[in-house]
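pasting for the record
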Amino acid sequence: MRIGIVTLPLWGNYGGILQNYALQEVLRSLGHEPITLDFQWGRSGLPYLLSAAKRIVTKILGKTHESWHIPYAPTRTVHEVIGFVDRYISHTRTFWNSYPHRIVKEYGLEALIVGSDQVWRPTYTPCIEDMFFKFAGDDVRIKLSYAASFGTSEWDFTETQRAECSRLLARFKDVSVREVSGLPLAEKLGRKATLVQDPTLLLGREGFEKLLNPTSQTKKQERYIATYILDPTPAIEGKVEFLTPSGAKLKQITEDMPGVGPKEWIEIIRDARFIITNSFHCTIFCLLFHIPFIAMVNERRGGSARIESLLTPLGLEDRLIRQSDFSTLTELPKSELIDWTKVDTILAEERRKSMDFLKRNLPTP
């Protein structure tokens, strides 16, 4: 079955690209033919201007639950990211700002899946209705969400958006979300949802290892403490340096880092001895590769809902720390305190349930 994947723009976000790759590979393993519907936000486009204006007004009015980010850049700017997307992700030509109705016929789509990432967060998606398949008619027989995320526990839809997205969601065969906090939000749109794993967890460690270069003996001997901090501040960076043990190497990973694409990003995480991050997907790769970590809450990008939903079932909620508490740490938590056997057992069971969601909603080829 030819399945169109709808997700956020494929540009410089390592986690967003890797979850897209993971969902594609899982669907292929089930015998389907997935293709990602590629689009970018144009800075000159009306959706971009309206979204930017909304954020400015929101900021002035002091509604701090809104994320203060300019929408996604219109082009992929990192060479390694472009190379990964073009080599490993089957995608359409690029569409700007929204999807045209002709895309279904042009690519022969028989089913559509939206997910994962923060696809149902209006402040990240100026054309939110496209994330509910406004562009597709009844000729697409199967419409699903897989691990769709609202990105926050706050209700972020206007009444107009709620009414239209509720109408569109009623056409879905089935609905699944990534976070516990998404269950009541889906009900506000008129549908009960199933809780499933992020696609990166569904694909699992072995699914990513085939992409990576093996760890050399030299790398094993030169393991380091790594940080991947979104929206870093001087206070955070200073605290990281304070917490780094004397003599230990510190490697700071940044967004759009020259020479680092999605593959290299995973390798840096895999070869670390400890990770400090406030990234949801960086935390996931720590879990997959058994790397001890601290996950800080990033209030600017949705707060704690996403990572709480990830870590609490694993008994690792103590690894989640608010930025104010991070500033008071005097040392890093002990690495050996994580029971990786328990983590793997729980993830395996959740992986089975998540695969069941896809299997029961997609016909066997």
